[in-house]
Amino acid sequence: MSSRSLSCLIALAALTAALALTPLARASDAPADSTAASAAQPSAAAPADTSAPSAAAKPESKETPAAKPEGKQTSAKKNAKKNKTKAAAAAKGTVKTVETKAAPGTMPVKPEALPQHVQVQHILIGFAGSVPGKAITRSKEEAKTLAYQILERARKGEDFDELVREYTDDSPPGIYGMAGAGVAPAAGEYSRSGMVPAFGNVGFSISPGNIGIADYDPTASPFGWHIIKRLK
After folding, report:
1. N or C: which end of the chain has fewer CB within 10 A?
2. Rounded to an integer, what distance in angstroms lies between the CA atom of residue 92 and that of residue 71?
3. Closest CA to 124 of 16, 38, 228
4. Which among 108, 124, 122 has a CA at the least distance from the CA of 228?
5. Crossing angle of helices 160-167 and 140-155, rounded to 10°
6. What is the pTM of this model?
7. What is the pLDDT of residue 201?
8. CB under 8 Å to 157, separation ≥6 — which residues?
9. How many CB atoms neighbour CB 105 within 10 A?
């Protein structure tokens, strides 16, 4: 083979190789372009992805206030339980009831018109030296305390006759009729002025069934405390 033919063959081989490499280079460019396009797609989708969670969060925020009615229901249940507890405690006697109030008609009510005649029953609570001929040993302070305890018991409805028999430092049954000032006493009555002032003052100032008290006073009530019930 001549040197000229060899040179032609080499040139032809080089041309063939060059033509073979050209499509490969173009093919290699295409993936690079497609890769760039595919890389751009996530960036375009990113806003849609970030907006999706915020849209999903809105229903959750709307559901949050729904907890408020549950809180009200819970507090209502607690109040109901407290009321039931109080009612149960009252039933067991651990809560004070209306038993401490006076019985109907026992509290002092001023008569519509000043009566001319009254009948009263009283309990005298004296102290040492206050009632002649009575060996009373209690002090003045003890007498006052006892008198108001008896007054409370009487107003609660305890039998007044029994209280008279148990406690009075006068003679049972302790019933007296009195005629008003300037009124002639009927049979068995005393004039109001013939009794200690506090005794008559209370007796004429309350209505039948009422119970009052005349406090000790050296002048107006020198014998001690009088718990007075007007009978008629």
Report:
1. N
2. 32
3. 228
4. 122
5. 160
6. 0.57
7. 94
8. 103, 106
9. 13
What residues are paired with 229 via a beta bridge? 121, 211
Residue-wise pLDDT for 118-175, tens only, equals: 999 999 999 999 999 999 999 999 999 999 999 999 999 999 999 999 999 999 999 9
**How many C-beta atoms surround the C-beta of residue 25 within 10 A?**
8
β-pair type (211-214, 189-191): unpaired
Reduced to 3 states, what is the DSSP secondary structure of residue 217?
strand
Question: Class of 117-230 per CATH?
Answer: alpha beta
For the chain, the average pLDDT equals 74
Residue whose token pair is 């009794």: 195
Whole-number pLDDT of residue 213 = 96
93 vs 198 pLDDT, higher one = 198
Nearest to 106 by CA among 155, 52, 176, 45: 155
- Phi, psi (degrees; rounded to nearest 5) at 24: -65, -40
State how beta strands 189-191 and 225-230 pair. Answer: unpaired
Q: What are 125's strand-pairing partners?
A: 225
In the three-class reduction of DSSP (H, G, I as helix; E, B as strand; rest coil), residue 232 is classed as: coil
pLDDT: which is higher, 119 or 19: 119
